[in-house]
# Entry
Amino acid sequence: MHRWIMTVGMMGTLLLAAPAPSLAQAEPMKVGVFDPEVLWKQTEIGKKYNQDLSAARDRLQAQIDKKQEDVEAVKSKLRQQQASLSEDRIQEMKKDIITKQTELDRLNEDATKEMKYQLGEVQSRFQEMLVKTIEAFGKEKSFSLILNRGVVDYSAPGIDVSQDLIAKFNEMNKVPPAAGSAKKPGDAAKEPPKN
# Structure
């Protein structure tokens, strides 16, 4: 109890010692909140990053699915032919199943690591761009404070600046053109036919 009283007493002393702004100098605080999830999903770069991550996930999943099919094919073949195979051939097929299952497990682990790495990379880049955007937007629009909605229990709908931040983010951070997308209209005719 004694420590609490002392702390309250020190706080009171600090408050009394702090310079009070005069009424003429006091500017109203301009506060905004934003939803980072909305910016991730609705900015052009966020959409591009999501597409890239989805494409990587789909590519890795296709490899995993193919390897899973290989494992299942050998298992099915063993079940169907087990009665007519020699014991050596059965053991050989079981060893092949174990090898393919190990490859599948490694592929799963590698895919998980790769996706975590890619996600970390794009989130880090996006966060860096977001911080710069918020800083520029805040200075430009004279905000005193811009808060992440995730750390705010309540905010009036009128102070949400997510849509304005999306526009500013897109203005400051252009999506780089895809490799090979700068083709001229006549270039399509020059491409060899696909068989």
In short: Residues 1-20, 181-195 have pLDDT under 50 and may be disordered.
